[in-house]
Design goal:
There is one protein chain. The protein is of the alpha/beta class. It has helices at about 15-25, 70-80, 125-130, 145-150, 170-180, 190-195, 205-220, 240-250, 250-265, 280-290, 320-345, 365-380; strands at about 1-10, 30-35, 40-45, 55-65, 95-100, 105-110, 115, 135-140, 145, 160, 185, 230-235, 275-280, 360-365. Strands 1, 2, 3, 4 and 5 form a 5-stranded antiparallel sheet that branches. The longest helix has 26 residues, at about 320-345.
């Protein structure tokens, strides 16, 4: 029997009646044992269309012998019984049943993602879950749900928007800061140089890597001990420096840099939340090509992406097939770095105290939608 958490919500009509009926239907479903139900909580709508009613939210702990997709189908059947209408995204609904956790299963299919991809920053999800199952472990965060809730409850929350050049991290971070009144920290030029020039023909020496890492760490030290409830948001993640170095430095220089970096990172504040922007090869290729042609859409690519050993754009030095080759090489380098970042954030070390426990992964292909999802994820922490 798998232990599962189901999130429940309603903001249409007689909300309590809808939730009560949903719980009763779950109680008598074949293959399901209802173990515990949290109390109901009023929650303001997050991220959806304006003018919605206040949600009533709760969580259920169940045990089941149903497979994950079969359980998802059963939850949809309960929603349909209670006249759930599937219209506008994040819109009003009579009842909403989300499969949050299914034991320690990690799954990513077109119809089902486990754990639920947005639960880690949603206070209205975590609080009822912690009430009934505080010791359940989130398999990607590698910590208990109680620890996750504590992480997003910091008196000065720090959110790092993480993405390679071309992912739109500066735009997303700025939108979050505008919406939440958070202190905004921009990446120094040294960060752009590291992420744009890693493993190129003109590599930086060890001293340059240390200087760049120090420049990236400096603005983050100011957040230590701060008590501003609006928090801090940065458009970079300090540990990306170390991951870029792993691509650019040889074994012995990397070992020395890693020792230096560990001490440096310990002097800064670590983010409680990472907003991970993932861009497809096609998106990165398109944005790099735009930059190379001097036909850049600043809303799509404002990162200081350097395509050649001396900085600047490739179009000033090359043309034709040379530009294409340079862009293709840049995409390959950025994808390798993006894969390193994603792997580290999605496979947390339980013993680490420097990694963000809450990671929300967002497709960077449509920056308008990415901004909407990122702002909603951070606003849900409140």
């Amino acid at each position: 029997m798998a232990r599962c958490l189901v999130g429940c919500g309603s903001n249409v009509g007689k909300r309590r009646d809808f939730l009560d009926r949903a719980v009763e239907l779950l109680r008598f479903m074949p293959g399901v044992t209802l173990v515990s139900v949290s109390r109901y909580r009023d929650t303001r709508p997050i991220g959806g269309p304006p003018g919605q009613g206040v949600f009533l939210n709760s969580a259920c702990l169940i045990e089941t012998d149903l497979a994950p997709h079969d359980l998802l189908g059963m939850l949809a059947a309960v929603e349909n019984t209670l006249h759930r209408e599937r219209g506008e995204r994040w819109g009003p609904r009579t009842v909403d049943l989300d499969l949050l956790l299914y034991d320690d299963v990690v799954l990513d299919t077109q119809s089902l993602t486990l754990p639920h991809p947005r639960m880690v920053t949603r206070r209205f999800v975590l609080e009822p879950c912690v009430e009934i199952a505080p010791d359940l472990v989130h398999p990607l965060a590698a910590c208990t749900l109680e620890s996750l809730l504590e992480s997003i409850s910091s008196p000065h929350p720090y959110v790092a928007v993480v993405g390679v050049p071309g992912s739109g991290a500066p735009e997303v971070a700025s939108a979050i800061a505008d919406a939440t009144l958070a202190r905004l920290v921009h990446a120094p030029r040294e960060y752009a140089r590291i992420t744009g020039l890693a493993a190129q023909e003109c590599p930086m020496d060890e001293i340059s890597w240390e200087q760049a890492a120090e420049a990236c760490a400096k603005p983050l030290r100011a957040t230590r001990g701060a008590a501003d409830p609006h928090g801090t948001v940065s458009d970079y993640w300090l540990h990306t420096v170390q991951l870029a170095a792993a691509e650019a430095l040889g074994c012995e220089p990397l070992r020395r840099f890693a020792s230096f970096f560990t001490g440096l990172a310990a002097t800064t504040v670590s983010p409680q939340v990472a907003i991970l922007l993932v861009a497809s090869p096609e998106v990165l290729e398109e944005r790099i090509a735009c930059r190379a042609r001097h036909d850049v859409d600043r809303s799509a690519l404002s990162d200081d992406l350097m395509l050649g050993p001396t900085g600047g754009t490739a179009s000033g030095r090359q043309s034709g097939t040379a530009v294409c080759a340079d862009a293709n090489d840049s995409v390959a380098r950025l994808l390798r770095l993006q894969n390193r970042i994603t792997s580290v954030l999605r496979h947390q070390d339980p013993a680490s105290t420097m990694m963000p426990r809450a990671v929300v992964t967002i497709d960077a292909g449509d920056l308008g939608r990415a901004v909407q999802e990122a702002v909603a994820a951070v606003e849900a922490m409140a």
